[in-house]
Structure formats: C-alpha cells, structure tokens
Design brief:
By secondary structure, the protein is of the alpha+beta class. The protein has a single domain, classed as Alpha-D-Glucose-1,6-Bisphosphate, Chain A, domain 4 (2-Layer Sandwich). About 25% of the residues lie in helices and about 40% in strands. The chain has three helices and seven strands; from the N terminus they run E-H-H-E-E-E-E-E-E-H. The protein has a seven-stranded antiparallel sheet with strand order 1-7-6-5-4-3-2. Strand 5 and strand 6 form a beta hairpin. Helix 1 packs across helix 3. The termini are far apart. The mean pLDDT is about 90.
C-alpha cells in the first residue's frame, strides 16, 4: 500500500467550542445543506442516528466533481468536543484511496471563542501518490465549510446554545 500522509490544520473561531461542535458535528446533516446549498444537496444517516458506528452520506449538487461521500463515525466525545470519523466510500475517490480518517477537536480560546483542530490521515492505494495539491484543496474546502458555519453562528447567536 502507499504511504499515509497526515496533516493537521487549525483555525480560530469567534464561537464557543460547544456551539461549533453542536453545529458542525452533531447537526451537520441539517445545517450544512442549508448553508452550502450550492455544493451540498443533502446529508443523511444511512445507518444509525449519529452515534458511534453511524454512517453518514453526503450528496453533492449537480455539476460537482463528486457525487457522494460516506463517513463512518468512529469516536464521539460530546463532553470534550471531539470526534473521529473515517471516509469509507465515494463515487470517484475509492480507486485512489484506502481511507481518510479525520479527528476534529474544538478547544476554548480567548473570551468565548475556540480553536478548531482537524487532523487528517490519507492512505492511498498501492502505487498511488497523493499530491500535496490534492491535500491542500481538501484542507481549503474543510476550512471554508467551518468558516461558513462560524459566520452563521455569529449572526444567529441564539442557535446551538
């Protein structure tokens, strides 16, 4: 198999860890399609109800480079605002990847803000080289999604309290 590549990214949000966790992790199936309607058509649980072992399918809009992705929730720590999930299926990426794991943690920062830390590990299939540009594009998309949700939470300060 190819060599895994791991990246860690973080950014500071002006929203509490609890609100970011509730919106982005516990309720992403509702808020992300609502806020990112031009790219995300729907998010649904195809197994489970959001707890460990659940499988979530993200369906992208027409014209996207990808049709769907499936993630399995591997760990969910609601008290410490952490989760870990694994990308397990897609209509276009499975020919190149064995898996991608993500570990997400929201930690308090400043007065009412948080630091969002995301660690991703990409495991390519044998003979496949994951280029840094591919990883950068994925990083940018993830941060962009978090920033959209942060902006929503700032504008709607009573939501997800």
């Amino acid at each position: 198999m190819g060599e895994p590549k791991s990246i860690t990214q973080s950014f500071v949000a002006q929203v509490t860890p609890a609100r970011m966790f509730k919106a982005l992790i516990l309720d992403s199936h509702n808020i992300c399609p609502k806020l990112m309607f031009s790219s995300i058509k729907s998010i649904e649980y195809i197994e489970g109800d959001g707890e460990v072992g659940s499988i979530k399918q993200i369906n992208f809009t027409e014209g996207s480079s990808i049709g769907y992705m499936k993630h399995r929730i591997d760990m969910l720590d609601k008290e410490n605002y952490m989760c870990k999930y694994t990308f397990i299926d897609s209509d276009i990426l499975m020919d190149r990847l064995e898996y991608i794991t993500y570990e997400v943690k929201f930690e308090g920062h400043g007065h009412g803000g948080c630091v969002c830390k995301i660690t991703s590990e990409f495991k390519p299939k044998e003979g496949v080289d994951i280029k840094d540009i591919d990883i950068e594009l994925g990083k940018d998309r993830a941060i962009g999604m978090y920033e959209v949700v942060e902006a929503y939470l700032i504008a709607h300060h009573h939501d997800y309290t």
